[in-house]
Design a protein that fits this description.
This protein is of the alpha+beta class. The protein is 32% helix and 32% strand. Strands 1-2-3-4-5-7-6 form a seven-stranded mixed beta sheet. Strand 6 (144-154) and strand 7 (157-167) form a beta hairpin. The chain is globular, with a radius of gyration of 15 Å.
Length: 173
């Protein structure tokens, strides 16, 4: 059963709730696609809410009727060096869904809001550094894979990801 959800813009007051979501989500959902040797180093660095994102006005939360955060994610303006298209671009930022609530359309609803918001702000391209786990999710949203990328998290700590790109101009037509 899909719960009733509401979508809203995040605020700095949501820091603890987003931290809790990321701490629930990343260790469980990434375990199938990453070895423990990577997760033990990466998860403490990636499973932390980013205060600047919460304050950006472009980061969203999906909540149940009790106000529990079930998914989070957003976008920021960005630079698409080396990608086709000369239009305005943005970057998908820190997307996660509660591991007990996957495959219910919550993440899709959240990302649809993120993409509408970016498109409404004039963004034509959304760049995404996807986890291996989330590649099928982003494919279903219209992103296409460009290439693997190693994301440096700290000296000596690299997190393998996949760079993906969505053309938001197609959503307008």
């Amino acid at each position: 059963m899909t719960p009733t959800i509401s979508l809203r813009r995040a605020s700095p007051a949501d820091l603890a709730a987003v931290d809790a979501l990321l701490a629930r989500s990343y260790p469980r959902l990434l375990a199938a696609d990453y070895p423990p040797s990577i997760l033990v180093l990466a998860v403490p660095r990636i499973a932390r809410a980013r205060p600047e994102l919460l304050a950006s006005g472009t980061y969203f939360l999906a909540e149940d009727v009790r106000g529990r955060v079930l998914a989070a994610g957003g976008w920021t303006r960005g630079n698409l060096a080396g990608a086709e298209g000369s239009g305005d671009s943005g970057n998908v930022r820190h997307v996660a869904t509660d591991p007990d609530m996957t495959r219910r359309g919550i993440g899709r609803a959240l990302m649809a809001q993120v993409m509408r918001d970016a498109c409404g702000a004039g963004v034509e391209w959304l760049d995404c550094l996807s986890t291996r786990t989330a590649v099928p999710f982003y494919l279903a949203l219209g992103f296409r894979p460009l290439h693997p990328v190693d994301v440096p998290l700290a000296p000596g700590i690299i997190f393998p990801a996949v760079r993906m790109l969505a053309d938001l101009r197609q959503a307008k037509s």
